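Attaching the record inline, Q. Sequence:
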Amino acid sequence: MEKFECNRRIFMGGAAMLGGIAAVRPDRAIAHDQCGPGPIPDPALGSTKVRRNIFSLDPSGPEIQSLRQGVAAMKARPVDDPTSWLFQANIHGTVDNPPQGMPAELSSTWSTCEHSSYFFLSWHRIYLFFFERILRDASGDADFALPYWNYEIPGQRVLPLPLREPADTSNPLFVSQRRTFGPNINGGEPVPVQVTSSSEAMRTTFFGSPTVFGLTWQLEMQPHNVMHGVIGGSGWMSDPRFAARDPVFWLHHANIDRLWSVWNAQGGGREDPVNDAIWMDTTFAFFDETGAKVEMSGSDVLNTADQLDYRYDDEPEPEIGLVLVGGGDGAETSAAGSTELAAPATESGITLGASPIDIGLAAQVDGTEAFTTNAASPAAQPVLLELGMIDYAEPSGHWYEIYINLPEGAEPETLSAYYAGNASFFAQSRTLRENMNMKGEHQPVRLDITGLLNRQIQEGLWDGGEIVVQFRPNGLETATESMPVDQQISIGSIRIVRQ
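Structure, as predicted:
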């Protein structure tokens, strides 16, 4: 395996990547001299795996059989085996205590998921990469690649058939801990079309930073968070401590990973934060198919085909790779500050439960000019609805449609000029994060409402006065259902900012 000096950052990408490009392609295996373990090459390097839409696969075909065999083999292994199903799930989150005698080197990787975090996309890409290798080895199929579920395609908004039939223990992909109403997930009812869309995330041209809104925050909000709640209901997928125990978790996250690749491929100034040393160099620990502990960072996962030896079936065949020799030697140049445009008269916060709730925000500036953004300008800063200091004791599968300035008595309509989007608070609770010992600073939830307010201004629907934010609960079994107190969501701060 070819070695590269530790002080040189080597990564491979397409022609759209910036600066220092040389038309050379060394062995794809990458390591870092004197840098610890470094990424471990896939034994099958040289044969790029293709992650396919599960709806394109025969439910009784060899790919699904390999998936089932691999999952079954992993589930048969003890929890203290890093290649077991439960150990891998516990990396994401768990309430379990490590078994007696389990080395701290192993248990220290439990409950280390990155959510509400700048590392959300890179951490989960590495997580899936090593999980896929473990699953491939367990399946006995050297060509196996993890499928994804593209729930945005019309007709594919239902849980893929192999995960729900047979609906018993003979099927290692079936679990009963999924939503049973509004919709019935295992019953093959479609999820609401408005929660599957990634269009808002795909429109943003900035990746994001620890404090500045961008792709990583938008994509986590929707479809990631909302789909967790829709699938899980009161079951595993709604709870970060149990989500990865459901096989659909891995197909869902493969799709989120695919959307990151789709975003990059659109161009138009979209690029990963390659000049941010913290994002590039922060390492995360996982385990490979041999049970060996391995580490990777953002710089190791910038291009899936050249660095990780996989691609998605809706990506073109990769051309000869290019080597970009550069370094994460700076920070993102986008401004981290924000300007408050609207806020409640008093910061008393709100509590979301099973009933609709409206809150009025007083504009902090006169007129509408401060809320208007020229979207064509590269320097345009979005107007964001920011929800901070979020807390709840126990997760629920409910999500909320958010409307801005919906007239009194008007029927909520997701195609209207008042619909801002959806909010789900997967892994957002301060209490839950502390109980899981989750790392990273707790960040607010942000929703880009720039286009919405611009449209309302242009159509004369809002004149610059009070802004009313309305939360409408979804996923309730009945219209009169109440929500247990420990599932009610406390939001300590709500405001509108330009960032």
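The longest helix spans residues 120-139. The chain has eleven helices and 16 strands.

More tomorrow.
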